[in-house]
Amino acid sequence: MLSGIYACDIQVFRFYPDGLALDVLVQPAPGPGQGPLIATWLRREEPPTGVRTARYTLSSGVYTFETRGHLRDEPVIVQVTKRKDQLLVDRRDGGRLRSNLRFVRIYPEKSA
């Protein structure tokens, strides 16, 4: 299952092994140095305003969940393929498809 915090530009996902996904925009775009700080407030218990929650499922190696857009309140379908410490993400919102977005794990730091 998925676990950890991943970022691509200003989009940040936090995944829990039980199937919970948190989705938020963070400015400026965070890197690994901001991962521990983000972990303190991007938590499943009482997520802050602006954080979307979703449940993901796994089928044929692809994790899928539906969330709501941050800029337009519309459904967003997210499909995730895990590759070591990064995720390849396809997202479809408002009929627009963005493919192969690379999300890098920013928390916890990858093991040596």
Task: Give a brief outline of the structure.
With 112 residues, this protein is mainly beta. It has one helix spanning 35-41; strands at residues 4-8, 11-15, 20-25, 52-55, 57-59, 62-68, 75-83, 86-93, 96-107.
> pLDDT under 50 segments (min length 5)?
none
Q: Compute the gyration radius: what is it?
A: 13 Å
Strand arrangement within the widest β-sheet reads 4-3-2-1-9-8-7-6-5
How would a textbook summarize the main sheet?
Answer: 9 strands, antiparallel
Q: Helix/strand/pairing class, anyone?
A: mainly beta
Mean pLDDT: 94
**What is the total number of structural domains?**
1
Record field, number of beta strands = 9
How much strand? Answer: over 45%
This entry's quaternary arrangement is single chain
Helix-strand string: EEEHEEEEEE
* Helix amount: under 10%
How many helical stretches?
1
Cα(first) to Cα(last) distance is 21 Å
Shape: globular
What's the helix and strand layout?
Layout: E1 4-8, E2 11-15, E3 20-25, H1 35-41, E4 52-55, E5 57-59, E6 62-68, E7 75-83, E8 86-93, E9 96-107
Describe this structure in words.
The protein has 112 residues and is mostly beta strands. The chain has one domain. Helices cover 6% and strands 53% of the residues. The protein has 1 helix and 9 strands, in the order βββαββββββ. The chain has one helix spanning 35-41, and strands spanning 4-8, 11-15, 20-25, 52-55, 57-59, 62-68, 75-83, 86-93, 96-107. A 9-stranded antiparallel sheet has the order 4-3-2-1-9-8-7-6-5. It is globular.
